[in-house]
């Protein structure tokens, strides 16, 4: 390996690890070094084997061949608790928290502090949790139920949980995917502090700029093999992408704008009252033309997702009017608004986008069954044709549409959700974080699809917390902060500084207690 | 993938696929096993008369289980079906014997088809109450239908002060005769009860497999939020399944009263549990989203044949209960094993393609 480091700095070494699942080889002779007091970045497309490698390190899976060496001693993990005993902590991508328990109870789950027969010492747990959270610069009450926290805050709790176990090696799988820019900064400071304390961090992310910024060593996985291992200073984003997918990739499908004069969508004074007073969405008005991509940027809790929910009719107590092609939409529920030409691609694919037990095909046609139905009978042939058409159209990897949708990779699942929305024949497409948690290749596909749909005359409103994404894709950029629209820029006048400034508007020292915000 | 690996893969798969196939057919196999066992162990078991008699017994539970299957697929449960059976039997019996007393010396009598329709409407109406409690007032299905279980049973007992409406032959001058046909009539040698089961089962299977409503039922049970966001009117779907379950229960209430020519207010106690057992035995997942009408009917037959066969063998009814419980648990254990194996087979197929 080309990263010439003195061996003493290596705290964990994976040597020649191969992992065979029934019929498939997830890892092929992987060597992976983890350095003490450093951020060890691991990248690769979905399905490259990152998760498998992490599961082996965390003791969830056992390698078929090869060994794990910690501080020069070969070890074998019979389970996750063995790994934890060896100082390995993991922050999972899919949050592994109990929403029905408090923050403190989550942090000490399965390691409760007890006082013999008198049961759990809640006060002590809460005190220690508060200390941890303060170290993470988050003022979350340890007694809060996890269900009442925003996703970003939940991620912080996950990190606190790993820290509470005195991890020497901390695995972070996509820790920033749900965080706002401010929260990411805090996380990076926490990482720097952990580094200084000698903790080795294994960092997995799809956000390449982020990796270049905080990584010390980078390892690239492709198809179960290591394709590159370098010290971070010597390489750039281009290099990473090349190692990941084997060639230089075009990031975003930046095409000529297809904006027409015709207004396709208008929202007037959309507001969503907050339970505790004030507004989650505060009288937002915006319009979209045919062929236009309107990007909505903002921090976590700015009310972006809630705005899309209001537009879609998911909140019965939301106020304001919407117009499609100049005609007022009287329908106030999801079903009615889908019929009028709105479609939402939700942020949380697993929980709101897909029905895991149904087949790929059934998921795709779920919202548009009407168009395949005569009287009460589903025309199976026409349904299958439409499914096949969209599988081709969106370049999905779905050899058998009758298979359960849970058998697909994240990127392909996202395409199923997009296909479902497109099959309703929408005039306006609402997309909430359409690229969250999918790999570079699928991301590019999704962006290309967005561009193409816009060129076909659709109006697209998409929400993102990725600044590069919003700058590259949007014809216009709307910025939200504290539920209000704080900026609206044409692509030509938008600069990162302006957009960031608008997203921070109204954020004084007294940020609203975000634990009260509903994240649905 | 190299050729060697491909071959290895194919071989490993066929073994697992075979096991998977056997497990998928487990309810069939169980049915076959009980049939073979009892035809050897119990004399006269395979006689046509006995088979038809057993089918008549099974049909009642199967009808309830069909309604229950839809409810369970949406992620709910309907504990009130047994009480609906009892109450609807009392409604039918009361209408035949006493009519409706209008209070000023007049009593309205309906003819039998009208009585049947009214009774079915009562069953559907109770389903509406269950559905409204669950969708509008957000009562958990278990609690809502547990409440209805008590209320409807109480109403059934109140309707006659606990007495039986006996001798439902009706009076020709009121046009209330002929109620017996429902339970005792037969077409082409098959009892009407079994024809009703066939009709309801076909309709239910069609709804499940070929209509948007059926797809919606599965989607609501699989992921209610995703279903709602796809424009499915979740509450309407839930209303439908409880109404349909009430309808099936009313049908059973009518058939039992007609077979016995009497309505007893305690009829149908614990029927709900047998219906749930049949659905589960047939592969319906209690967590929602999975299940088939065909599986449920086979499940009902396994349970029914098991208890009738054991009776014919002279096994004590106490043991029957124990055996029934073991069969149900075994079915769910195999179900879990099947799911695991299925995941593995899918993994292999994916690897084979990738």
UniProtKB/TrEMBL annotation, chain A:
ABC transporter domain location: 12-248, 259-507
InterPro entries: AAA+_ATPase (IPR003593), ABC_carbohydrate_import_ATPase (IPR050107), ABC_transporter-like_ATP-bd (IPR003439), ABC_transporter-like_CS (IPR017871), P-loop_NTPase (IPR027417)
SUPFAM superfamilies in the record: P-loop containing nucleoside triphosphate hydrolases
Keywords recorded for this protein, A-Z: ATP-binding, Cell membrane, Membrane, Nucleotide-binding, Repeat, Sugar transport, Translocase, Transport
A Pfam family matched in the record: ABC_tran
One term of GO molecular function: ATP binding
Family: Belongs to the ABC transporter superfamily.
Protein name listed in UniProt: Sugar ABC transporter ATP-binding protein
UniProtKB/TrEMBL annotation, chain B:
Subcellular location: Cell membrane
Protein topology in the membrane: Multi-pass membrane protein
Keywords, sorted A to Z: Cell inner membrane, Cell membrane, Membrane, Transmembrane, Transmembrane helix, Transport
Broad class of the protein's primary localization: membrane
InterPro entries: ABC_transp_permease
CDD domains per record: TM_PBP1_transp_AraH_like (cd06579)
Membrane-crossing residue ranges in chain numbering: 28-46, 58-77, 84-109, 115-133, 140-159, 179-208, 240-262
Source species, domain of life: Bacteria
Alphabetical list of Pfam families matching this protein: BPD_transp_2
Protein name: ABC transporter permease
Organism: Ancylobacter oerskovii
Taxonomic lineage of the native organism: Bacteria, Pseudomonadati, Pseudomonadota, Alphaproteobacteria, Hyphomicrobiales
């Amino acid at each position: 390996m080309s990263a010439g480091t003195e061996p003493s700095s290596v705290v964990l070494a994976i040597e020649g690890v191969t992992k065979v699942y029934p019929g498939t080889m997830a890892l092929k002779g992987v060597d992976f070094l983890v350095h003490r007091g450093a951020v060890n970045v691991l990248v690769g497309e979905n399905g490259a084997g990152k998760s498998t490698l992490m599961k082996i390190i965390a003791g969830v899976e056992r390698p078929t061949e090869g060994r794990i060496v910690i501080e020069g001693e070969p070890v074998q993990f019979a389970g996750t608790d063995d790994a934890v005993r060896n100082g390995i902590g993991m922050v999972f991508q899919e949050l592994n928290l109990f929403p029905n328990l408090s923050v403190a109870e989550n942090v000490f789950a399965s390691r409760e502090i007890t006082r013999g027969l008198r049961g759990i010492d809640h006060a002590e747990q809460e005190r220690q949790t508060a200390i941890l959270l303060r170290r993470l610069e988050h003022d979350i009450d340890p007694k809060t139920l996890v269900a009442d926290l925003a996703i970003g805050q939940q991620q912080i709790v996950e990190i606190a949980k790993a820290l509470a176990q005195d991890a020497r090696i901390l695995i972070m799988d996509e820790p920033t995917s749900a965080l706002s820019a401010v929260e990411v900064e805090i996380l990076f400071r926490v990482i720097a502090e952990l580094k200084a304390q000698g903790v080795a961090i294994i960092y997995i992310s799809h956000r390449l700029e982020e990796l270049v910024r905080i990584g010390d060593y980078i390892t690239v996985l492709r198809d179960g093999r290591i394709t590159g291992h370098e010290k971070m200073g010597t390489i750039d984003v281009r290099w990473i992408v090349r190692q990941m997918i084997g060639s230089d990739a075009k990031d975003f499908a930046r095409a000529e704008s297809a904006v027409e004069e015709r207004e396709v969508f208008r929202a007037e004074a959309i507001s969503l009252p907050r339970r505790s007073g004030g507004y989650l969405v505060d009288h937002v008005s915006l319009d979209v033309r045919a062929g236009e991509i309107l990007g909505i940027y903002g921090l976590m809790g700015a009310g972006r997702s809630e705005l899309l929910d209001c537009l879609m009719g998911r909140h019965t107590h939301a106020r304001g009017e919407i117009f499609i092609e100049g005609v007022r939409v009287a329908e106030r529920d999801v079903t009615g608004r889908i019929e009028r030409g709105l479609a939402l691609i939700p942020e949380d694919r697993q929980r709101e986008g897909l029905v895991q037990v149904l087949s790929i095909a059934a998921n795709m046609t779920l919202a548009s069954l009407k168009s395949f139905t005569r009287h009460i009978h589903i025309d199976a042939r026409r349904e299958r044709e439409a499914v096949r058409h969209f599988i081709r159209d969106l370049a999905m990897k779905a050899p058998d549409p009758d298979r359960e949708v849970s058998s697909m990779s994240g990127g392909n699942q996202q395409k199923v959700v997009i296909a479902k929305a497109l099959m309703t024949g929408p005039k306006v497409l609402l997309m909430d974080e359409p690229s969250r948690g999918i790999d570079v290749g699928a991301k590019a596909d999704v962006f290309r699809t967005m561009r193409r749909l816009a060129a076909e005359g659709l109006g697209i409103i998409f929400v993102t917390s990725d600044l590069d994404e919003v700058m590259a894709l949007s014809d216009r950029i709307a910025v939200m902060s504290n539920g209000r629209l704080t900026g609206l820029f044409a692509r030509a006048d938008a600069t990162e500084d302006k957009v960031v400034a608008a997203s921070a508007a109204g954020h004084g020292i007294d940020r609203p207690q975000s634990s009260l915000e509903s994240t649905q | 993938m190299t050729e060697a690996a491909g071959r290895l893969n194919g071989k490993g798969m066929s073994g697992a696929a075979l096991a998977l196939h056997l497990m998928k057919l487990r309810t069939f196999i169980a049915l076959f096993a009980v049939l073979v066992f009892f035809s050897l162990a119990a004399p006269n078991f395979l006689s046509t008369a006995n088979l038809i008699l057993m089918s008549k017994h099974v049909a009642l539970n199967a009808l309830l289980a069909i309604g229950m299957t839809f409810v369970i697929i949406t992620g709910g449960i309907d504990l009130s079906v047994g009480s609906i059976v009892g109450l609807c039997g009392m409604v039918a019996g009361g209408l035949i014997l006493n009519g409706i007393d209008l209070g000023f010396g007049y009593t309205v009598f309906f003819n039998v088809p009208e009585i049947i329709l009214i009774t079915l409407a009562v069953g559907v109406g109770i389903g509406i109450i269950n559905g409204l409690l669950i969708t509008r007032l957000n009562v958990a299905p278990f609690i809502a239908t547990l409440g209805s279980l008590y209320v409807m049973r109480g109403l059934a007992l109140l309707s006659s002060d606990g007495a039986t409406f006996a001798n439902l032959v009706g009076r020709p001058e009121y046009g209330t005769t002929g109620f017996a046909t429902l339970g005792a009539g037969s077409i082409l040698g098959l009892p009407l009860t079994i024809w009703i089961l066939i009709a309801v089962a076909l309709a239910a299977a069609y709804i499940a497999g070929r209509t948007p409503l059926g797809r919606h039922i599965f989607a609501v049970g699989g992921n209610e939020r995703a279903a709602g966001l796809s424009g499915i009117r979740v509450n309407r779907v839930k209303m439908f399944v409880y109404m349909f379950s009430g309808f099936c229960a009313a049908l059973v209430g009518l058939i039992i009263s007609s077979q016995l020519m009497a309505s007893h207010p305690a009829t149908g106690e614990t029927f709900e549990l047998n219906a749930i057992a049949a659905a589960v035995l047939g592969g319906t997942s209690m967590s929602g989203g999975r299940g088939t009408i065909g599986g449920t009917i086979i499940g009902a037959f396994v349970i029914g044949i098991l208890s009738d066969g054991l009776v014919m063998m002279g096994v004590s009814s106490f043991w029957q209960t124990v055996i029934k419980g073991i069969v149900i648990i075994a079915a769910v254990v195999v179900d879990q094993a099947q799911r695991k194996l299925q995941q593995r087979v899918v993994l292999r197929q994916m690897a084979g393609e990738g």
